[in-house]
Write the structure tokens for this entry.
Amino acid sequence: MTTIVNATLYDFVTYREHRYVRFDGVIREVGPMSEYRPDGGETVDLRGGWLMPGLVLGHTHVYSAFARGMGVPFSPKSFQDLLDQLWWKLDQNLDIPAVRASGAAMALDYLQNGVTTILDHHASGAVAGSLQALREAIVDGAGMRAACCFETSDRFDVSACVSENLAFAKAAVPGRSAALFGLHASMSLSDDTLALVSEAKDDLPVHVHAAESAEDEDLSMKRYGCRVIERFDRFGLLEPGSLYVHCVHCDDAELALLKARGVTVAVNPSSNMNNGVGLPDVKKMLDLGIPVILGDDGLSASAAVEIRNLRLAMNHRYGGPTVFTMEDQRKVVLETYRFASALLKVGLGRIEPGYAADLAALDYAAPTPVTETNAFGHFVFGLSQSFRPRHVYANGVAAITDYVPAARLVGPAAQSVASAAAVWNRVAREGKKR
Ligand SMILES: [Zn+2]
């Protein structure tokens, strides 16, 4: 049992000072320091530092690890060019060792950013066994929690994608790993594929990009005579528990359909700005009662950065700082925990007995008074600007101690530079062949 003492607790709901928290894999006791009694176990003194629940990324791509610094001829004129010229060149050259190495590298990055749970959307040239390789790196190796899926599309052998998604779902370990059924996007999925998936996926809800670019909607109208969300609905793929990512270009009828079917939307404003595709109408989604969660789309590895950028992006989108309220923003954070908790079958996001001991401890000397009412403001405009926790625990096990990552994380992550170089060489050789 480990006990953290002299902590300031903030879990996006309550703010409490001078507390202790005792845990193994699960939080067992939380109380005021006046009631603290040593139990002979390990004690960590935060000296007033903040203790928060480990953060969750509601949509990410571990495979994007190797895109950092990759040089390819790049002059996209459309969203499809962006996929053709960068992402699809990269992912098709990932074999199982590369999947494992990128998983280890990203796990280290996530944990250093206080992220302990991810909802990953995976693609690689190697299909069979790729999700297991990811899980071995991220969950078994690094101790994080992860929901994984393989992004089925017409680029791949569809039946291999179906098998990989189903096999991973069967092997899920409640509390630690979970599955959704992965689909890439409307623009890369034929009607035949959607019909096959709809039949084969059992009751697994889908995790799919939708209406990320205007092109996705335009192509759907041109090829199928309907908009993206309606198209997925025709195949029975809008279900409670399913995760539709981006929804930047959804019109009112599509948003109404998402609401009616109980679908959750994952927004990724940093990625949207990076790709220049526009920004989702998160305010309207929330007002309609659509559950909205937050991801990084593989861009930052930091949920804190994404929470901050959601604020900046929405203020920009609505032409002022008050349309998208702090309460709207907090609602997205809480929903991200709620969705991940339900999917993984574990209590995430609160510092209370019975919740998972996924924790991030931070040095934060607030320059102004902190109360429960303004603590979220301190997070968004203070802590999130450089969110590098001093200590991180995943499932009660120390991953980062005094800013130093555990050796079991550093060793495997060190493989990633050589592995990325090998992948880049394969991409370059293919480029020359063309
Ligand atoms: Zn994505």
